[in-house]
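Allow me, if you will, to draw on your knowledge of protein folds for a short while. I have a record of one protein: its chain in single-letter code and its fold written as discrete structure tokens. Could you please explain, in whatever detail you think fit, how the structure tokens follow from the sequence? The record follows directly beneath this note:
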Amino acid sequence: MDVHTELLNDSALEDEGTSSIQRHLFQQWERTGGLINENLHQYLLRLTDDLVLFGMPIHSDIPAITHVGRKSLAGKVMGSGWRTELKSLGNDDAVAAAYRRACQGEPTLEQVKFTTTRHGKLFVLEYKRLVLMIRTPKGFPFLATFSAQERLGCEPHPLASLQNRVVGLRPSNSHVLLGSDAEPIARHSLSA
């Protein structure tokens, strides 16, 4: 599994290539300065199934995951094994950069390219991820992410099948990677 990220500048949140949900979530966040009010609270409740939520980083740059929405991109791509897969990334600087920036109160939009092998195939998933620090009315911070898929491709990979046999990797339980997604991911699918 490999992840490459590129931080995008804030003006990218206004581009047509950015998800309308990401733009709207950013606008709600910006209006409140990231502090939950009734409007932001209601909007977050509507997006609960699509968001991935994190506590603040304590022992590493990658914070602990507190919630993965069942329709989030992370949940769909990694299936029920998402915790194990994300932990396998370790304390990767590329992954942690967005969290570090968001923890400083800066909205963070990044372009992500996630590559993995499953069942003899190479999968490439490209998406944009918005990471925001949000504070409860009492001031307690947490991070919220929303990811919008841009491209999912797969191709035969002769070494992947051998790698699965030699290393003994468990087959993915991801509906997306297995090609049996009950709810196909639309352009505005959510988070990771």
Observations:
- The beta strands are 2-8, 52-54, 65-68, 108-118, 121-135, 141-156.
- The chain is about 30% helix and 30% strand.
- The radius of gyration is 17 Å.
- Confidence is low (pLDDT under 50) at residues 162-172, 178-192.
